[in-house]
Amino acid sequence: MKLISISFLACALLAIVAVSCKKTGITVPPSQAHFVGDENQSYSILVDPAPSYNVVVGTTNVASTDRKVGYTVTSPTGAVAGTHYTLGTPGSITIPAGQATASIDVRGIYSAYTSGRKDTLIFTLTDPEVAPAEFQKTVKLLLRGACFEGDVELNSFLGDYKKTTETFGTSPYGPYTTSISAVTLLTPTTGTIKVENIFDFGWGPITFRLDWTDPANRTVTVIAQSSGIADAGTLSGSFAGEEVAVRPYAGQPGTFSACTGRLTLNMQLGVAGLGFFGDL
After folding, report:
1. Can you tell me the distance from the alpha carbon of 116 to that of 172, in angstroms, rounded to the nearest whole number?
2. Which of 11, 216, 227, 275 is found 20 to 30 A from 269 (Cα to Cα)?
3. Would you give the DSSP letter of residue 15?
4. CA separation for the pair 123, 136 (Å, rounded)
5. Of residues 239 and 131, which shows the higher confidence score?
6. What confidence category does residue 142 fall into, taking pLDDT thresholds of 50, 70 and 90?
7. Do 263 and 220 meet the contact criterion of CB atoms below 8 Å apart?
8. Within the chain, where are the H helices?
């Protein structure tokens, strides 16, 4: 009889726990709105008319009725609706019944972005019917046209170049890896880069000056240097113990493209104090 009583008591306690858990688990959180995708997004306006770009808004649940989600747009760069872009439904969008997402249609005005202009639009959710969630409440959308060679960001050149090729005289070599290890902006349209491992022999950095004052005629010119590059024995054993020297090759500067990330670096190699080779 004692065993039966214990078993009955245990069953009763389990039943009480189960009912208690069920009662505390029936709270349904309210619907909330949020953006879908990255916080920072980019829209390239390449043709006229430009296709629309969709900034996607989602909700945390699906409802049986249509729901309106509000939003505002600001631009720290001064973009103006109707001049630089248009919106399909300014101020709000409707998430249809039975669905959890809808899109804000943004359309860039092509003529505003043919000369390198870039704008940022900041979308922020508001609360006409669905409250914004505490996450993904804003999206920053970059608007830009086709790549403009005068729009140079020197930092974008930093990193490894695994498809470096070279020709010294009639001897092609590569591909191998060089790297741009440092950049310095000198003026709004000039700057320098330091290139490591030219010649693929562990050479020290060589500095080049970039000039994009005329975007249609961009130049790269090596800075003359006669120490700190390498032992000239890497050029020829007969120059071991001497210093490698570099200087611009007369009348033949190199060039570069900010849009493709390709650089052509021209220079003349030599041995410090002795002279320079004739080949580019």
Report:
1. 37
2. 216
3. H
4. 11
5. 239
6. very high
7. yes
8. 2-24
| 55, 41 Cβ separation under 8 angstroms | yes
Report the half-sphere exposure of 126 (CA within 13 A, side-chain side): 11
Q: For residue 24, what are the contacts with CB-CB under 8 A and spacing of at least 6? A: none
* 88 pLDDT above the threshold of 50: yes
Q: Tell me the three state secondary structure of residue 253.
A: coil
Here the tokens at position 121 are: 């639009």
Distance CA 185, CA 155 (A): 9
Residues whose CB is less than 8 angstroms from the CB of residue 158 and which lie 6 or more positions away in sequence, other chains included: 180, 181, 182, 183
What's the rounded Cα separation, in Å, for the pair 268 and 276?
A: 7
DSSP labels, 171-205:
EEEEEEEEEEEEEEEEETTEEEEEEE-GGGS----
